[in-house]
Write a structure and sequence with these properties.
Elements: E1 2-9, H1 13-28, E2 33-41, H2 45-55, E3 59-61, H3 64-69, E4 75-78, H4 85-94, E5 98-101, H5 109-122, E6 126-128, H6 136-146, E7 153-161, H7 182-185, H8 189-205, E8 208-216, E9 221-223, E10 230-232, E11 238-245, E12 250-256, E13 265-272, E14 275-280, E15 286-291, E16 307-311, H9 332-349, H10 357-376, E17 380-381
Helix pairs in contact: 1-9, 4-5, 5-10, 8-10
Amino acid sequence: MKELRVGMIGYGFMGRAHSNAYKRLTDFFPVQHKPVLKAACARNAEKTRAFADNWGYERVETDWRRLVGAQDIDLIDICAPNDMHHDIAIAAAKAGKMILCEKPLARTVAEAEPMVTAVEQAGVANMVWFNYRRVPSITLARQLIDEGRIGRVFHFRSNFLQDWTISPDVPQGGAGLWRLDVQAAGSGVTGDLLAHNIDTAMWLNGPITRVVARTETFVKQRQHVLTGKVEPVGIDDACLFIAEFANGSLGLFESTRYARGHKALKTFEINGADGSIAFDLEEMEYLDFFEYKQSSGQTTESHIRGWRRIHVTNSEHPYMDRYWVPGLVIGYEHTFLNALADFVKGIESGKPAQPDFRTALQTQKVCEAVLESGRTGQWIETGATL
């Protein structure tokens, strides 16, 4: 078995989720590369050391440039704030490293495009952690669509709701709250939450070609952790947009951090001529399916027609043959494990896993069009292709 020597940049929530996947990969998936946690990197040496000791990294770095240039590192995992993605990814590509990058790919399309060029010119394996593709129920939804079970799609609607920034006393900036600082994050809920929904939507239903949006910042000023001053808030607290897909279907998307009572409500529903599919992250082991027309071409008899709830735990369901017996569920952490397994299998097979940087760039284009429409109130062409 070959070693896959990992350099992790960042020690926060995503650093933990990714580290767990590296540690458990070969316990569940029969791949030929075993991750080795070589180095953790962040600016705060004390906190990075605590993270490294807890997860089993061999050493600590405080300068990402040293990590990227290290000879004993094969893969760079970028879990740093969004404003750092561009420089780290390009340097890592030039150093010949494989790259896994947290979403969104960058703050803007202008930052993302040279990242795509860099990895493609260097020929290095790359992927963006849009982990919700790897929820078995969502992967099953893609399978049902590919099998033609819902027919022509008419509607795609999706939301992602949280409530953690309602208080005006929550500050912006710094290690824990950089997502509220537009300079670090690039955007608010659009890049942080809706990027996931957009990636899922385009994976299931094809490119989003045109959008019209409304964004809002409810708390206009917050104290900045780094300066201690009350400063304007530049990120979007909430976003609603209507979308047109290349296949002629319509989409409706909503995200906010001001939905009291919701911590991570992520749902979608797809309506087609022959059936519908619905998913709710809070019950991620289920996929709801309405069958109007059977795969045989016969219309489902009216007296048994209705929504069916599929418990996605059988061995024939996506990824589930690697885990437990039917009826027993897996969780959020396994989506990263599934994604990493696909990435490593892509290295070994020569068929790269998705979404790579170029695919993630299409989501970036939609996010940017949404933000531009939010500013102007106009319909905006996205330029996204898949």
